[in-house]
Amino acid sequence: MPDRLVPSIVARAARRAPEASAVTLGDEKLDYAGLDALSNRIARALKRIGVARRDRVGLVVEKSPRAVSCLIGIMKADAVCVPLDPNAPPARLAAMMDDCGITAIFVSARRRDRLAAAAAARTSPRTIICVDSDGSPDRDWAAVLAEKDAAPAQAVIGADLACILYTSGSTGAPKGVMITHRNVTAFSEWASETFALSPGDRMACHAPLHFDLTLFDLYAGFAAGASVDLVPPEIAMLGADLLDFLDERAITVWQSTPSVLELISARLRATRRELPSLRLVLFAGEPYPAPALRALMEALPCARFVNIYGSTEMNDVAFHILDGPPRGDEIPIGRPCADAEIFALDDAGALVTRPGTVGELYARAPTVAAGYWGDPAATAARFVQNPLHDEYRDVVCRTGDLAAFDENGDWFYRGRRDAQVKIRGVRINLAEVEAVVARFHDFAEAAVVARPGEDGGARLAVIAVARPDATPALRDLRRHCLGALPASMTPEALELRESLPKTSTGKIDRRALLTAN
What we know:
alpha/beta; GMP Synthetase, Chain A, domain 3; 5-stranded antiparallel beta sheet
């Protein structure tokens, strides 16, 4: 198996320490030998049913060691792994399956009805494989287990796609970010070395498998031979249970969004408990309010804290290791990761060279994705030729983030250039939510905005004008939105007004909307 492919990370760990714990969820666990062998069987089963190089294979399965095996097995079959949100509405699942032309899909028995509804809405995958013992309409898991556990031959190279991760899109539909094997292996090697990950570490995987934070939790962990403990989805937003999980599992490395860390922080302060095993805390996905971070750092004095900056399109390209509680009101996104470069251009397109000057951030790194699946226009707009030269092909990621650096060379986030926001670490394009809200029968017109939440993060709110004789209610709006959007993209507040402010061209004036009462 070529060393620059994602599955080689697991294969190397299995050769080094076959009996070491690889991935665990409660009582279900796999050592590295077991993870390698099961993923080999999955790959062979896919090849036997005709899955070929570059085919897309989906995954609609709850987080588990078996699901992780499917991710790796799909890549071992030379296919492209497409993990999908098992809680997404059928219409959204259908849109993503149809968008990338999924050939086969793994599904759990719990999600079979949701998948059937999604398949009926668009096109059905050629083969459905149920990962539970009770089988599926097309193929039983027992057939997978009957395959040989030797690694199949692979034809892909590092530049080929490893996975497609869907994010919120500006056109009202999710966009599939194409991530190569090289993107993942370059990042996992950097992270494992930079944070001194080792076989003695117990790494938590809090994020769902369709979220880009798992690229660190899984593959950087596997690169180090560490044990990865999957956080049960049912406790993912329960502070008391998360604190118990960290303590009982003796977690040494934790990564999540600040919103989740604040749930843990509240329980730590209330109980005055300690987490003596926890040595490294990474936060990503959204800004962390400095006062809240100071409180968490005081509650965990032995842990080291790191702010990670990136997006699905480029993974992580900058980081900042805190040497103590933040002294000011802002936390830097830091400096470039090894073998990465970040720079900013001002409104005139000139390179930002002076501290404090705000510009749009660009990133070039081996972790920058290959573009958006089936959307050359969006790819061309986001993944552009390096604007600083044209001597040779040099693709950089135009982040859409505004940033400035200080006198020490540390970069600071200054907001978004477009209408995207991050809610609990999930990037959301307001246009996609507005497209769904616009179909709510009680509104004459409406806009979606991000409002500050009590925990310092952002929350989606709808500002709307009601139709005559209508009495819109938030619960009805949320029920409507949940039919087309995941819960993470569903508005949490409703503000009714007599009218919405307009610009001279008749468009909703969003700046005035946020300031008017």
